[in-house]
Amino acid sequence: MIINQHQNSRDLSSYEKNHLLRAGISPTEIDRYGEMPVEYITGKVEFLGKEFSVSPAVLIPRVETEELVELIWQDLSNRADQVNQADLAKQSHQLEPLQLIEIGTGSGVIGLSLASLLEQQQLAFQLTLTDLSHSALEVAKLNFQNLFDNQLNHGQLSFKQTDLLAEIDRVNNFDYIIANLPYVPTTRLNQLDSSVKDFEPLKALDGGETGLRLITQLLHLAKHYLKKTGKIYLEVDDTHTQSVLEQISPDFEIKVKLDQFGKNRFAIATLKTKKTWLT
Ligand SMILES: C[S@@+](CC[C@H](N)C(=O)[O-])C[C@H]1O[C@@H](n2cnc3c(N)ncnc32)[C@H](O)[C@@H]1O
User: Fold this and answer.
1) Predicted confidence band at 3 (pLDDT cuts at 50, 70, 90)?
2) 90 band by pLDDT with thresholds 50, 70 and 90
3) What does the alpha-carbon distance between residue 251 and residue 272 come to, in Å, rounded to a whole number?
4) What whole-number distance in Å separates Cα of residue 100 and Cα of residue 252?
5) Rounded to an integer, what distance in angstroms lies between the CA atom of residue 89 and that of residue 108?
6) Distances in Å between the alpha carbon of 12 and those of 22, 56, 148, 248?
7) Which residue lies with its CA nearest to atom 27 of ligand 1?
8) Residue 38 to residue 240: CA distance in whole angstroms
9) Alpha carbon of 218 to ligand 1 centroid (Å)
């Protein structure tokens, strides 16, 4: 007797089964995709309650990255409170639009989620989404179209293909520089699950020998682009401790925050004051 004739040979988690079923794909149909992540099979991923398109040109957004957006949002909310207080006091001055840039936007989940929150709070902003990869930027643009119909009410959004900040004007005008750059140490790439190393773009993962190649470059460049009061928000590898990050960024105070799994995952960098330089 043959039982489970249509059972697929791949062991799917209940998340993966539900993900496929929501997209109208039966888990029994996916053998031909090998170990391909279900998000590439459906071309969709959910991030902070919104559906984004993904393709093999972009990293599949991780749950930790939702926490990065939430951290930045806590910070931005304080600014929203300032605006509300200014309104309440009927002060005539308007806050300048917030200037934000996301480096390595991939599918755009970080930048576009922040854009959505800023729109809800009616905060004026200018946001630039960048990536080295042209195909990744195309996915981010598609998501902007799908989520916002290419229109914002309170903000302005632009896309730029660039290696880190190379094509961005060197004026100290950013309030926030945000980046989830490739940070996996090269030696660890081979140890990743085949669903990651065989399908996700290497350029989105490989952070060089210690995982810090691009993060170091960015931290050296960023002081020419950040306002004195500006902040850099980074996602980092769990081996990137506070002291490791301090060694590569002499111009910045660094705070490392843990993710929901208790691992070092986020770094917030602020420019050192002159007083700090002297000590
Ligand atoms: C870890 S993925 C992050 C994607 C997305 N921001 C997210 O959180 O899901 C890193 C992204 O950085 C881009 N990237 C790699 N090297 C870069 C560079 N030198 N300058 C700008 N972007 C780069 C990759 O193409 C990729 O889209």
Assistant:
1) very low
2) low
3) 6
4) 18
5) 36
6) 15, 20, 33, 41
7) 106
8) 30
9) 12
CB-based contact 204:59 (threshold 8 Å): yes
Residue 26: helix, strand or coil by DSSP? coil
> What domains, with CATH codes, occur in the chain?
13-42 (no CATH), 55-278 (3.40.50.150)
Structure tokens at 197: 């190393």
* Cα–Cα distance measured from residue 218 to residue 41, given in angstroms and rounded to the nearest whole number: 33
Q: Whose C-alpha lies nearest to ligand 1, atom 24?
A: 204
| Residue 138: CB atoms within 10 Å | 16
C-alpha–C-alpha distance, residues 178 and 70, integer Å? 13
Residue type, 149: D
Q: Are 168 and 225 in contact (CB under 8 A)?
A: yes
Q: Within 13 Å of residue 104, how many CA atoms lie on the same side as its CB? A: 23
**Index of the ligand 1 atom closest to the CA of residue 60:** 9
The pLDDT, as a whole number, for residue 65 is 98
Contact of 132 with 163, CB cutoff 8 Å: yes
Which pair of structure tokens corresponds to residue 100? 């934000």
Write the residue with the smallest CA distance to atom 6 of ligand 1.
Answer: 105
Q: Is the CB of 50 under 6 A from ligand 1?
A: no
Distance, in Å, from the CA atom of 268 to the CA atom of 72, rounded to the nearest integer, reads 9
Beta carbons of 172 and 221 less than 8 angstroms apart: no
Strand partners, 155: 125
Rounded to an integer, the average pLDDT of 45-57 is: 98
